[in-house]
Design a protein that fits this description.
The chain is an all-alpha fold. It has one domain: Orthogonal Bundle (MetI-like fold). 71% of the residues lie in helices and 1% in strands. The protein has a two-stranded antiparallel ribbon. Strand 1 and strand 2 form a beta hairpin. The radius of gyration is 25 Å and the shape is globular. 22% of the residues are buried. It comes from Pseudacidovorax intermedius.
Length: 304
């Protein structure tokens, strides 16, 4: 007679709880210990982020009385609509420029070794350790009428007089792309690094030239890193304040600067909170769309 297998407990078949996935010294921590370890983080998140944010958003619907008039103002006034459209347009241009500049750098970082790889990595990471204000001020020095760029253009004979490069939409896009470039390079570099070199060699053995192998093998397999980097740059650009305020003009007014004006000059906190609420809805919508388009495990390198 064959032996009967002992019954398996239902808890053994159930998927592990997220609070039971932490390990310490080779031992799996219980849910209680895991919750205790995570409690300071969630308490800090609640105190310094969620509570102030919810308090601010409550002003948009509760001041001076329960109403949605502040949100109606955002969409009724064409000036505010133009600011929102301009913010999205500048953010999109910034993302495209960062992608054009950043993808070749990320690709090269996966192909070089030694001192060259160290130099490229330093060039990408060092700007993260400097202030955004300092990097933006550098662009003011470069783009002003007597700056390096205008002097170089006149020395080369391309222009007869200084051009207006500063306080333009192009200056805003260029400076923002420079500041946000590392946030696009690093996800793409991670995606490209996870692609085995054998795939490109196999494509070459099957008759594909380098151009075809790039567009049909390398680029599709790195799209998770490309989309994640583009999303990070675009969402960060939507809320940029320092760079547009310094290198832009009133014609390049963006939503973050508009919020600052409403708070500091107009003292209209409820309307400023409504602008922030609209921006949050846009950010949340884009994040959910991206989450549907690219699964989280692929984003973190779990699959091609």
């Amino acid at each position: 007679m064959s032996a009967v297998a002992p019954p398996v407990a239902a808890s053994a078949l159930a998927p592990p709880s997220p609070l039971r996935r932490l390990w310490l010294g080779g031992r799996q921590l219980s849910g209680g210990w895991t919750a205790l370890l995570l409690a300071p983080f969630f308490a800090l998140l609640l105190i310094v982020f969620l509570y102030p944010l919810l308090s601010l958003l409550s002003l948009s619907v509760l001041e001076p009385h329960p109403t949605l008039d502040n949100y109606a103002r955002v969409f009724d006034n064409p000036v505010y609509l133009r600011v929102m459209v301009r913010t999205g347009w500048i953010s999109l241009l910034t993302t495209v420029l960062a992608l054009v500049l950043g993808f070749p750098i990320a690709y090269m970082m996966t192909r070089v070794k030694g001192a060259v790889a160290l130099l490229l990595t330093a060039c990408v990471l060092l700007p993260l350790w400097s202030s955004v204000l300092v990097r933006t001020a550098a662009w003011i020095v470069l783009l002003r009428r007597d700056g390096i760029v205008n002097n170089a253009l006149q020395w080369l004979g391309l222009t007869g007089e200084p051009m207006k490069l500063l306080y333009t939409e192009g200056a805003v896009v260029l400076a923002m792309a420079h500041v946000l470039l590392p946030f696009l390079i690093l996800p793409i570099y991670s995606a490209l690094k996870n692609i085995p070199d054998d795939y490109m060699r196999a494509a070459a053995m099957l008759g594909a030239n380098r151009r075809r192998a790039f567009f049909e093998v390398l680029l599709p397999m790195s799209r998770a890193g490309i989309w994640s980097g583009c999303l990070m740059v675009f969402l960060s650009a939507l809320g940029f304040f320092v760079t547009p305020a310094l290198v832009g003009s009133p014609q390049e007014l963006m939503i973050a600067t508009l919020v600052s004006q409403q708070v500091r000059e107009m003292l209209d906190w409820p309307f400023a909170a409504a602008l922030i609420g609209v921006l949050m809805v846009v950010v949340a919508t884009l994040t959910m769309v991206f989450n549907k388009a690219v699964s989280f495990n692929r984003l973190m390198g779990g699959g091609a």
